[in-house]
Amino acid sequence: MLMAGELMDVLTLSRLQFAVATLFHFLFVPLTLGLSVLVAIMETKWVRTGDETYRRMAKFWGKLFLINFALGVVTGLTLEFQFGTNWSRYSMYVGDVFGSLLAIEAAVTFFLESTFVAVWFFGWNRISPKLHCVSMWLIAIAANLSAFWILVANAWMQHPVGYVIRNGRAELTDFWAVISQKFAILEFIHTIGGAYILAGFFVLGISSWHLLKLQNVEFFTRSFKIAIAFTLIFSIFEIAQGHMNAEILQETQPTKLAAMEAHWETRPRAPLYLLLWPRLDGEMNAIEALPVPGMLSLLATYSTQSVIKGLKEWPAELRPPVLPCFLSFRFMVGMGFLFAGLSIFGFYVRNNLLAYPWFLKTLVFAIPLPYLTNEAGWILAELGRQPWIVYGVMKTKDAVSFVSTAQVFTSLIGFIVLYGLLGFADFMLLFKFARKGPQK
Amino acid sequence: METIWFFLWALLWTIYFMLDGYDLGIGSLLPFFSKNENERRVMINAMGPFWDGNEVWLVTAGGVTFAAFPKTYAVLFSTLYTPLMILLFALILRGISFEFRGKIDDRRWRRLWDGCLTLGSIVPGFLFGVTFGNLFQGIPIDESGILRGDFFTLLSPYALLSGVLFVFLFVVHGALWLAVMTDEEMHERSLSAARGAWPALVSVLVTFLVSSALTTDLYQNAINRPVLFLFPVLSVVALIATRTFIGMRKPVQAFASSAIVILGTGMFGFTGLYPNMLLSSLNPQFSLTAFNSASSALTLKIMLGITLVVIPIVIAYQSWVHVLFGKKIRLEELKEGESY
Questions:
Q1: Does residue A100 sit within a domain?
Q2: Residue A7 domain boundaries
Q3: What does pTM read for this prediction?
Q4: Are B161 and B133 spatial neighbours (Cβ–Cβ below 8 Å)?
């Protein structure tokens, strides 16, 4: 482990490990959040109409849901362990506020979700259709509420409220403030929206693949129609809502806002450049062209005149890494508009899908895009908060455990190998069962 | 308040071991017990509807450690870094085996996940034992909660004994749950497996109780407050009851008794440990206790309110699930309906 010891320290390795564990976990979470709702809708239609097609839909999409769910569950365990194993000083300092949110997530929502997933899977012939359908709704509600508690915890790291520094640590003073702060609510809604778009495109893409092959046309047209309405609503909503998330950064995390816009100089009437590329070295952009005067000020504060703080306002060590924030932000926004465009068109042609094979083909290839977009959003959220682990309260470098480089190096390699294999197997199974289509 | 939380914390861990213990036990028995693919499927489906809900008790116990005793959580998880990472990897493999195993109809594929399931059951059982053995005995942590030693420091004879104890507790517990869930030939063999493992469990448990007296301070609290002898006595009595019920061919009662063995053993350890949570073997002053590692009064109060409301509800719906699916498994049903 000599090489590792020389090249990387415990901090870097722990950050890498956290990134691997969290980004990997979030490959599976959004589909769980969104597909649970879609399957619940399908099953409700079955219970209401008695139409067998809806039952087969719930079963087919439910199977994919479960394959995906399994990996989400087992990788979630890692995250709970990691705060203690790798970020013990963080856990000690903020556990009073942060730990309780994780505990509530487990006790209040994760129990419900995990228990009823089994009821749903094993219960087709054991409980009444109504109760079976209720189980799916419980899974969907519990999964989404789970996300709420986790995002409240993350929002507290982004914008800590309701605490006081006492006895050498952050202590809770106002629980309600922590769970109801605007940052948390916005972050929750935005993440849920992104997850629903991902699940929508997952169903749209797989349906399109079968429609192109003219297999189970009725089945996949109906799946498509349910998903397109869902995706349309959330992809348009996400754009409007995402704007609010950027806006709140102006008050709460000005360094993140400045980094994602590659905005260096504090100034009023801050422009938005249509062509922009930040330099890796030095405090400026390599390319700045086609300014829209005052647009950045307008977007962030609803006034073209307002002053927007630039990165130079802070010493270099308090700025987040500009390029990754800048890129992931632009990727996320660009994709957001693409998703809205695709779903508007899809909704428009929903009754005549087979006449647009090129569009169906596009949707098949679009399946991975919301995955990448969700990940980009998290890269922006987490890297944009740096160098802080709790914004303005605790630095990431002060949070890491006193463990050895060799330990973290070994576990990191373990995660990469294990997750690589499991991820490959899981997507292979999703692919296999998605292609196979519904049972007769 | 800290004391209430200490016992809630102890109880959550103990409930986890009582529930997931039978999953880990059946998983450990898998290659040694099953004779063919049908039997393996029966074993896996005997825990199929339950294992995930059971594992959440671990997530909750871990979360509560974090919430109520953040300092203990931080020091425990970072000093036991390597064993806990191995434990985590093992649990990941176990969890995924359920979902993956039946998805491709290929003998080698199933073999692979059977192996992962077994490994993912024996290893966690053993490492949970090692972890709590270390807690009961103490580990060399300094005043900043940093381990003065390495991975092998954590493998003291007492910790290893505790690891073996957990494996045997879970194997007997698992064999009895399997007896509850099966009939005819498999039912008979599950009972004989439990009967066969029982003498080994007795000897390990007795060795553990004796060496706890010799190498730890776990009896100190009971000496000051004799009512606490209830727990080691309970675990021994329940162990005898387990054997009696096996002899009477009453699997449900035998399973309940073995759950009480786990409860008694766990609570013996925790009540003996109180108020310490993580003993420092270097200097008792460095030990983390329920008092010096607890969260603020407000956090403890909010968490207590939520826990007291939610946990009974969880117990209610999980009991319903155990009743709903706790029926003898029939092979025809496995093949027709949804199953692993």
A1: yes
A2: 2-250+339-436
A3: 0.93
A4: yes
